[in-house]
Design a protein that fits this description.
Elements: H1 17-30, H2 38-45, H3 49-61, E1 65-67, E2 73-75, H4 77-89, H5 91-107, E3 110-116, E4 122-129, E5 144-146, H6 151-159, H7 162-175, H8 177-193, E6 196-199, E7 206-215, E8 218-228, H9 229-235, H10 238-261
Antiparallel strand pairs: 1-2, 3-4, 3-8, 4-5, 6-7, 7-8
Helix pairs in contact: 1-3, 2-3, 5-10, 6-8, 7-8
């Protein structure tokens, strides 16, 4: 498995049919407007065209995909309904929304929620609370990213168990030894401070200040305040760091309460 620029790993899919079906459906969900063709999906997922077409046909029969007049495929409203249901019922999203709204109002900046994934070394932004300041910086929701760049990713990485952290750094070192060494040197300070910062690491002219939150005693993700780089440089990090650490602690507490009730 390899990574590129801190992005999601690329590797052949597992041989199981379930994994292939999930991968095709996931690719349809992430595709731009206009859908995806069999050829490009097959190339992206490293599947044969015949296997890709069979999976798309099965998804269409189940009402999860549809073929367009152009011959390309897109997901159906059934999948959109699934996504809405998950967003409304997911315990972390439910607990995080009010915390994020208060943080966005207090900071004036966009606040993003990053969740860890079952795949080691990957996180995904799943929600944003809009700030009031003019000129904001957004992140792409729903796309996995490596935990090696950006304030939220580094805040999570610094809080992972040592073995998981070492695995992420070793993977990065294969592609960029110098960057891996710099990141390894940065992580103890992030863990001690309880927050991470970034400047133009993921998005040009964007900066961030992030803190991790816990669920069941382990890191579950991070809250990050994002902003144009000039606002972070002008104002410094102290106030935003205090704000995001307090919000992350509040979210950790809210999750503890919610989990005790279930």
């Amino acid at each position: 498995m390899t990574t590129k620029d801190g992005g999601p790993p690329t590797a052949p899919l597992p041989a199981s049919s379930t994994a292939r079906v999930v991968a095709v459906l996931d690719a349809l969900v992430r595709a731009p407007s206009g859908g995806s063709g069999v050829r490009e999906l097959a190339a992206e997922l490293m599947l044969s065209r015949s296997a890709t077409h069979r999976i798309l046909t099965a998804l269409a029969d189940l009402g999860l995909a549809r073929v367009l007049d152009s011959g390309r495929y897109e997901f159906t409203p059934v999948v959109s309904a699934w996504a809405y249901s998950v967003s409304e019922q997911h315990p972390i999203l439910t607990a995080a929304r009010p915390v994020m709204a208060r943080l966005a109002a207090a900071s004036g900046e966009n606040v993003h929620l990053l969740l860890v994934t079952p795949q080691p070394g990957l996180g995904v932004f799943v929600a944003t609370a809009r700030g009031t300041n003019p000129v904001q910086r957004a992140v792409e929701l729903g796309t996995p990213l490596g935990l090696t760049a950006g304030a939220a990713a580094k805040a999570v990485l610094a809080s992972l168990p040592a073995a998981d952290q070492a695995g992420v750094l070793q993977e990065l070192a294969r592609a960029d030894p110098e960057r891996a060494a710099r990141l390894a040197a940065e992580l103890p300070g992030i863990r001690a401070a309880g927050h991470a910062t970034s400047l133009e690491e993921l998005i040009p002219d964007a900066a961030g200040v992030a803190a991790p939150f816990l669920r069941f005693g382990t890191v579950a993700g991070a809250l990050t305040i994002s902003m144009p780089a000039y606002r972070r440089l002008a104002a410094g990090d102290a106030q935003r760091a205090d704000q995001v650490r307090a919000a992350a602690a509040e979210l950790t507490g809210a999750l503890e309460v919610a989990d005790r009730r279930t």
